[in-house]
Amino acid sequence: MSSWFASIPSPGPEWQQIPIDIFGLHWRIQTYAIMILIGIVIAAMWTSRRLTKRGAEPGVILDILIPVVVLGIVGARLYHVVTHPGDYFYPGADLWKVFAIWEGGNAIFGSLLGGAVGAWIGCRWTGIRFWTFADALAPALLLAQAIGRLGNWFNQELFGLPTDLPWGLQIDSGNKAIPVGLPDGTLFQPLFLYEIIWNVIGVVLLVLIERKWHLQWGKLFALYLVWYGVGRSYLESIRIDPSEFSLLGIPTNVWAAFVAVVLGLVIFYVQSGRHPGIEPSPYRPGREWVRPDAEVDSDDTDLDEKDTTDDDGVPAGSASAKATSPTNG
């Protein structure tokens, strides 16, 4: 084994919570939750800037963010509980623990599913094209995920198989995820760190690819799914604490990563065929936002008329497309 001093230490239990005393009230905020919140705020700010550059109304991200965050959290917790039922449903279990998201246990694939539903709702509400929002979000989402993984470090979770590498991760011997029989001082693969590095590299690649090829119509988000799915498929395969379910000997989370890769490839192929050109507007037809100081000229009008369908393939001139008024919700 590597020397205990040539390894990555994990924060002690005292670092998992931050005590706050206000007006005689005592609060304990989970460090895990703080890291997730920081990631959400940074992702929202960057996504908002990217949407604004595409012609969206400044601040429209706030109307989309509400259902995204709420359903993303619900989906993350639901997916984790469903794939780890033994941790929550057993004789004498406190069923309220199912809702204790501040104690850790939130699955990113569940968050993606719930967040996608929330994004669709928010985009329908504001008139923003769903795929425009997805592309604007893609690199920011990877960055937020990288920041959130620091929360796993504070919670001493998301670690891999034992290792003798010099960057092995120290985990307290009382951690319930450690397999029985391992000697004290065993070091583990720091999967949280691997994912942080993988995600940051992905952020750089997505930004560079977007600048060079101007990917739109959901194609940049498709590459996000491929990149993230490839990385997670490996990390989940060497994880100590995988989901309790498996198919053909492969853990559920690895299958979910495979699905993300396939879905990304399908989206890229389909959207490349349907929309080879540039988006005329970040808004669905009939929901465009016009800056108060902007003058509508014939060139802009002609450009908008070239886009004859919305994200769902509904003709721009149809009654359903005209039914909604141009508002940002």
Secondary structure class reads mainly alpha
**Helical stretch count?**
9
Order of helices and strands: EEHHHHEEHHEEHHH
Strand order of the largest sheet: 1-2
How many individual β-strands? Answer: 6
Describe the structure.
This protein is mostly helical. The protein has one domain (13-322). The protein has helices spanning 31-53, 61-83, 108-126, 130-155, 191-213, 219-237, 252-274, 298-305, 319-322, and strands spanning 17-22, 25-30, 169-170, 187-188, 246-247, 250-251. The strands form 3 sheets. A two-stranded antiparallel ribbon has the order 1-2. α1 (31-53) runs antiparallel to α4 and α6 (219-237) runs antiparallel to α7 (252-274). It is globular. The N and C termini lie far apart (58 Å). The model is unreliable at 295-306 and 312-329 (pLDDT under 50).
Short account of what is shown:
The chain has about 325 residues and is mainly alpha-helical.
Task: List its salient traits.
single chain, 329 residues, mainly alpha, two-stranded antiparallel ribbon, 9 helices, globular, disordered C terminus
List the helices and strands and how they pair.
Blueprint: E1 17-22, E2 25-30, H1 31-53, H2 61-83, H3 108-126, H4 130-155, E3 169-170, E4 187-188, H5 191-213, H6 219-237, E5 246-247, E6 250-251, H7 252-274, H8 298-305, H9 319-322
Antiparallel strand pairs: 1-2, 3-4, 5-6
Helix pairs in contact: 1-2, 1-4, 2-3, 3-4, 4-5, 4-6, 5-6, 6-7
